[in-house]
Amino acid sequence: MLLLKKFASSAATIILVAGIAGFSNAADRLERIPAKEFPALVQRLSEDPGFFDSDNLVSNESSYLQVCGVLEKLGVKDGVYLGVGPEQNFTYIARTRPRLAILLDIRRQNLLYHLLFKALFERSRNRSELLANLFCRARPKRTVGADRDVAAVLLEFEKAAPSPRLFRKNLDEALAFIRKKCQFPIHDKDASTIEGIYREFFDQQLDIRFRSFGRPGFRFYPSFKEIALERGLDGKFGNYLNSEEDFQFVKRMHSRNLIVPVVGDFAGPKTLRAVANYLKELGETVSVFYVSNVEYYLFQNTVFDRYGDNIQHLPLSEKSLFIRAYFRFPHPERRPGYISATLLQRMTRFIENLNAGKYHSYQDLGLHDYVGSE
Predict the structure, then answer these.
(1) Which pTM was predicted?
(2) What local confidence, expressed as pLDDT, does residue 22 receive?
(3) How many CA atoms lie within 13 A of 50 on its CB side?
(4) Is the pLDDT of residue 120 over 80?
(5) Cα end-to-end span (Å), the chain
(6) Residue 344 above 70 pLDDT?
């Protein structure tokens, strides 16, 4: 972020203006990341992977839509979207229409997961075809109209049966796409991980759920179908699969290599700072940072201060927002029947509170300062 300082000389002011002009020109060029630059950018922004005790192929945050109305009211658009975890990001990307999205996760598995989805989006012309390709079923015989909701799309999709032949065919084509079209170097272990991810979607179908290891049974969490059919506070469907326009926006982002998955630790020494430097080069600011409930584990592992320091390097505006999933503890924003609340917070307010020493626990973080949903 360009720090706001008073310059003692006009020469210093000229340098500042020239710098801003240079950033603007760089931002104007952010229409597509060339295929040959895509893997290099992933490597530039990534750091060594770590471990987390879940596969996280499907979100467990059934409350994820409760902030979408506020995002719309606040006019959150453009800028750069940062996020963590699985395809829940696609709904937030569709709702906030960023110029660039960077998805960072401590697990290399998550990077490979998003490369698989990138391949599936590439060969899917619409929502119905994405579901067919993801779950390895024949494409629906009847094209579902762009004005139909996600319930109608799922109803038509479920008429076909899963096909082992399509699984193998789709997997081979996805791996070829990642290696050739994306020019992304994946070794045998990566290919095996991608196959394992795809196999879970094939075996579990629409009933696939978030799964963790060493914690309570995974059937406690919502299924892919339940997540897709979740409704917002306005009572309407809100998943990106509910809107052909939203789907096509995410597809275009993928096709222009503007959804960039990287391996990174929120409290690590490299990734968030490398992202910050890259965005400054582009002259862009963060519009949204979806952090899920990662901050709970940062407190638990006593590295929250490192994360806070990393956040302060990001280029922000007064409109920059966190999207945070708040589990485990009661919260005024949690709706009856839900195990989490999804919260918004202005990132500049987070920094103010952090530097004022107000965050001693995860409860402080969730309860002290947030944008209400009403």
Answers:
(1) 0.90
(2) 34
(3) 12
(4) yes
(5) 31
(6) yes
Place of tokens 């995860």: 362
* Residue 30: alpha-carbon gap to chain centroid: 19
The encoded tokens of residue 367 equal 């309860």
Query: Contact at 8 Å (CB) between 332 and 57?
Result: no
Whether the per-residue pLDDT at 111 is higher than 80: the answer is yes
Give the C-alpha separation, 197 to 195, whole Å. Answer: 5
Q: Which two tokens stand for residue 281?
A: 């080069």
Q: Are 141 and 298 in contact (CB under 8 A)?
A: no
Tell me whether strands 341-346 and 80-83 are parallel, antiparallel or unpaired.
unpaired
Q: Within its chain, how far is the Cα of 227 from the centroid?
A: 15
Amino acid at 116: L
Other CB atoms closer than 10 Å to residue 92's CB: what's the count?
Answer: 22
Q: Which has the closest alpha carbon to 152: 223, 250, 237? A: 237
298 in Cβ contact with 304 (< 8 Å):
yes
- Is residue 156 within 8 Å of 143, Cβ to Cβ? no
- Angle at which helices 188-204 and 127-135 pack, to 10 degrees? 110
Give the model confidence (pLDDT) of 14-29 as tens digits: 233 333 333 334 445 6
> How high is the pLDDT of residue 213?
62
Q: What percentage of residues in the chain have a pLDDT greater than 90? A: 81
- Helices vs. strands in the chain: H and E counts, helices first: 16, 6
% residues pLDDT > 70 (the chain):
89
For residue 102, the surrounding DSSP H or E stretch is strand 100-105
Count the helix, strand and coil residues of the chain and give each as a percent rounded to the nearest 5.
50, 10, 40
Specify the long-range contacts of residues 303-306, CB closer than 8 Å, at least 24 apart. 303/267, 304/267, 304/359, 306/267, 306/268
Q: What tokens appear for 22 in the block?
A: 């240079």
- Residue 100: which H helix or E strand, with range? strand 100-105
